[in-house]
Amino acid sequence: MSRTSQIHRTTGETDVQLSLDLDGSGAGERSTGVGFFDHLLDAVARHAVFDLDVTVEGDLETGSHHTVEDTGIALGQALDEALGDRSSIRRFGHAVVPMDEARASAAIDISGRPFTSFEAVFPAERVGDFETELTEEFLRAVSNAAKLTLHVRVEAGTNAHHMVEVSFKAFARALRAAVELDDRVEGVPSTKGVL
């Protein structure tokens, strides 16, 4: 069973091309024009163990918001498509990840019901060319498009770089667990029979 997807999302603000393999090795190239965001997407691929290729042409002259949000939407669409009918997945995933003084937790339910709770207070408005508030925008975009219930909380930290990065890593580790196939699960893991 192939759990892959290719998304091409074009708007008046961005052109996003994204390919995803849920059963990959962390390989791929990420090129969005936003250096720190590329680094964060690298962390997602590595810690979720997804193959992820992303190329974005965006209206960066207006800031990185559209590029980050539309990449999140495309990734969510790719997750939704690659998961298919959700048969035999674990469905739930959680992680607590430290990074030096920073620590974040993430919990995911591939529920079919989009919801995002994000808790963080960042000590700086930017990390390089990335606005820290875009952390929540990206996670919400992925969650909405993939129809995930997602809770992410930055529990500790004083360095904005670490705090943003650890939230992406916690998200990735929780997502890895949730999409994993479980040979003990027959069909869709829901009493409803559908997710």
TL;DR?
The chain is α+β, with helices and mostly antiparallel strands. Helices cover 34% and strands 30% of the residues.
Give the tags.
195 residues; alpha+beta; four-stranded mixed beta sheet; 4 helices; 10 strands
Give the strand order of the largest sheet, numbering strands 1, 2, ... along the chain: 1-2-4-3
Total DSSP E strands: 10
Shape: globular
Beta strand %:
25-35%
- Oligomeric category: single chain
Spell out the helices and strands N to C. Answer: EEEHEHEEEEEHEH
The computed structural class is: alpha+beta
Low-confidence stretches: none
Helix share bin: 25-40%
Mind describing the biggest β-sheet? 4 strands, mixed
Number of helix segments?
A: 4
- Straight-line N-to-C gap: 19 Å
Mean pLDDT: 97
Radius of gyration: 16 Å
